[in-house]
Amino acid sequence: MQFHVASQFEYKVEQRSTVILNVHALRTPSQEIIEEQFSVEPKIRCEEFLSTNNENRFVRLETGTAKKLSIRYSARVETHVKAHRRSEIDAVPIAQLDRAVIPYLFPSRYCQSDRLGRLAWNKFGGIVHPYERVTAIADWIHDNVEYLRGSTNSETSAFDTITQRAGVCRDFAHLGIAICRALSIPARYFSGYAYQLQPADFHACFEAYIGSRWYIFDATRLAPLNGLVRISMGRDAADASIATVFGRIQLVSMAVSCDWLGDKFVPWTHRKTLQQGLSLDG
Predict the structure, then answer these.
(1) Most buried residue, 30, 148, 152, 260, by most Cβ within 10 Å?
(2) What are phi and psi of 216, to 5 degrees?
(3) Chain centroid offset of residue 210 CA
């Protein structure tokens, strides 16, 4: 499956600053970058580097004396998604989990799983099968939290979302992660480009580690799961922020796109996820 993804930013620089961007599509066993371009005008100092776990791709920009920044990224990406029957998805005891997965069991800045234990066990503790349990979590969030633009900000946490019952994709993802972790299911944050998302924007959802792989869940149901191009993953949005500014810079405009390059796209709908799990992690 091939997609063309793109993002562009226009900034007004008020003082010498540093910006760390996280907009590059990832290179993974299930996601291949066929070609990509990244440009910044005017020419300033740029440095691309990997996160400490050698997964997320960041670019550090130093504005120098520039008063405006025009940043553009585009890529042609091929993704390989895999479907697995629910009958083949089994639970793995924590004692046998891959060590790399252990950090995704712990509370984090935006996912206070330690504060949601009672709610999690009361509502979902009776569901035995781990995939059915996470599916029920995503369904409950979709049915009980209103998707409302402008209702939250960069400080909103999963606990805030469960209290306010409103949020955007980032908040839906944080709540899903927090509830999973409260039930001892490793979960992580996913950010990416999303085909058919309206209006076009960066998208966030979450992945749960069940059996021996990560499965993707999107409580917003705003984009097909097989239409996602991964940018980054982390414990929560603090690990996967699209842009982090150190200094004084004003965002003037932003545009994001994700276009399908094939003949006919068959979306992976919510109905299908009830029967099979979808993995974007190979």
Answers:
(1) 152
(2) -90, 140
(3) 18
Please give the pLDDT value at position 187: 97
Instruction: Please report how many Cα atoms fall inside a 13 Å half-sphere around the Cα of residue 46, on the Cβ side.
Output: 15
Burial class (CB in 10 A: 0-12, 13-18, 19+), 260: middle
Q: Which CATH number fits domain 2-79: 2.30.110.10, 3.30.465.10, 2.60.40.2250, 2.60.120.10?
A: 2.60.40.2250
Is the pTM higher than 0.90? The answer reads yes
Tokens of 169: 């994709």
What is the bridge-based pairing of β-strands 2-13 and 276-279? Answer: unpaired
The confidence score (pLDDT) of residue 93 equals 85
End-to-end Cα spacing for the chain: 14
Helix, strand, or coil (residue 263): coil
- Strands of the sheet containing 213-217, edge to edge, are 213-217, 202-210, 187-194, 228-234
